[in-house]
Design brief:
single chain; 13 strands; alpha/beta; globular
Length: about 350
């Protein structure tokens, strides 16, 4: 059995955790190692082929300190783990957004082991510095496989022979059957100011979501507010929304926080009548569960996929949230859900190179 190290965003974000779930369930005869906070043992306790190496234990932090600061070996625990594995799978979504410390991140990327390396499910950008693009292009060409989830990212690197494109990996999720509750809708939220580009939008966004909640409750609906990631402020956003909502309406709202309860979150989405999606993967999951979806676009990655999938429904850029008509949102509930049969088939191609490596053929 091969041993594979997973590189992933391990901050209890539902979308990224779904990537890990799909990957490990696809290859039950492969041993995976995930370097992540110790609570991920609870999150993936049902996956018997995954070993969690706790990144937040004191002993692990001490080893990293000794290696990097005292011995100055320019190697960390994660690199040591990579040496003992047969390959590395870096799976995730927004892995390559330009940040203020992007040059430091580049250095860490260049330190990655020379083991077979597969980069799956991601998009590239946004970025503003050409050097950012050039540096990553030099890194990508050394990987065994790079498969983006949107055509925009693919087009940036299509001259590299190892670069491909396929629909988002979450379209590969094995759906559970949930009975639809025709009087419940789900709204996934974000905290705009967590993202540098969206600072100053919090109050406009929260106020518009309050208007939407009031409108739907007045129409006889219950509302589920979904937090996909505590670290990124989703829970704070929900509390702010509810803080200024009249008690009459608060009684018709339920808070659903993602903390080791993946199936509960999927059930809420799968049983809802309608999805209002600010989170990228609430949009994908809404389509997957054949729901009408109204996206609130906070990042170009959402726009790129909306275009790729030929989505013809209504949506709004979060920067124009003050112009959004609540009635337009309500009317979107009656639009026929988009057919994503092609995307489900296409998303399987993310794994075609990894299949050959792990399964042969």
């Amino acid at each position: 059995m091969k041993k594979i190290l997973i590189y992933a965003y391990t901050n209890f974000n539902l979308g990224d955790d779904l990537f890990i779930k799909i990957l490990c369930e696809r290859y039950p005869k492969t041993n995976f190692i995930l370097y992540a906070p110790k609570n991920y043992k609870d999150n993936f306790s049902y996956l018997k082929n995954v070993k969690i190496v706790p990144s937040d234990l004191f002993l692990v932090k001490l080893i990293n300190f000794i290696l990097l600061k005292i011995l100055r070996l320019n190697i960390s625990m994660r690199e040591l783990l990579a040496i003992r594995c047969d390959g590395i799978v870096n799976i995730g979504g927004s892995l390559f957004m330009q940040s203020d410390n992007w040059k430091e991140k580049i250095k860490r990327r260049k330190k990655i082991s020379n083991k077979p390396f597969f980069l799956l499910g991601c998009n590239f950008g946004p970025y503003t510095d050409d050097d950012f693009y050039i540096e990553y292009k030099q890194i990508f060409e050394k990987y065994n496989d790079v498969c983006f989830r949107d055509k925009y990212s693919y087009n940036l690197f299509q001259d590299l022979k190892n670069v491909r494109y396929a629909s988002d990996i979450v379209f590969q999720l094995k759906k559970l059957d949930f009975k639809q509750n025709n009087k419940t809708i789900a709204i996934s939220v974000i905290k705009p100011s967590f993202r540098k580009a969206l600072k100053g939008l919090d109050q406009e966004y929260y106020e518009k979501l309050r208007e939407i909640i009031i409108h739907f409750v007045n129409k006889g609906f219950k509302v589920n507010l979904l937090s996909f990631c505590k670290l990124e402020g989703d829970e704070d956003a929900i509390e702010e929304i509810l803080k200024n909502l009249p008690e009459t309406y608060v009684r018709n709202v339920k808070k659903i926080y993602y903390r080791y309860n993946m199936n509960e979150m999927l059930k809420v989405i799968g049983s809802a009548r309608f999805i209002i999606a600010t989170r990228f993967h609430s949009m994908i999951l809404g389509w997957l569960y054949h729901k009408p979806v109204f996206p609130i676009v906070y990042n170009k990655k959402m726009t790129n996929v909306i275009k790729d999938i030929n989505f013809t429904g209504s949506y709004i850029d979060i920067n124009n949230i003050d112009k959004l008509s609540v009635e337009d949102v309500y009317s979107s509930m009656f639009i026929k859900p988009i057919d994503i049969t092609k995307q489900v088939i296409d998303s399987d191609r993310h794994f075609e190179k990894l299949d050959k490596f792990l399964l042969g053929g």
